[in-house]
Design a protein that fits this description.
It contains 3 helices and 3 strands; from the N terminus they run βββααα.
Length: about 100
């Protein structure tokens, strides 16, 4: 399963949110924020699965504004890579609708 996290630097801490599950955490450093969001997601999934609430709480998307912020950052990163002609290897993840 691929999960997307938005991590932003604040005045004192990095804030992190898993966009598919709307689970948040923070850390004093980027590395700490990354580790903390992974731990928070693990704990969230463990609790939801133990309670048998997967259908109700997986996925539980973050607000649209956060998804848009994530894609704005991704767009900037892609444009820089294309301009520098670096890291132009792409991976594709297909989502197929049968409805």
């Amino acid at each position: 399963m691929v999960l997307h996290c938005l991590i932003e630097k604040g005045e004192k801490y990095y804030s992190a949110i898993c966009l598919e599950l709307n689970v948040a955490s923070q850390g004093k450093t980027l590395k700490e924020a990354e580790a903390n969001i992974k731990e928070a997601v693990d704990l969230y999934l463990e609790c939801v699965i133990e309670a048998g609430d997967e259908k109700e709480f997986i996925p539980r998307p973050a607000p649209r504004e956060l998804w848009l912020r994530f894609f704005e950052i991704e767009e900037k990163r892609m444009r820089k890579a294309v301009e520098k002609k670096k890291n132009l290897q792409f991976e594709f993840e297909n989502v197929i609708s049968t409805a």
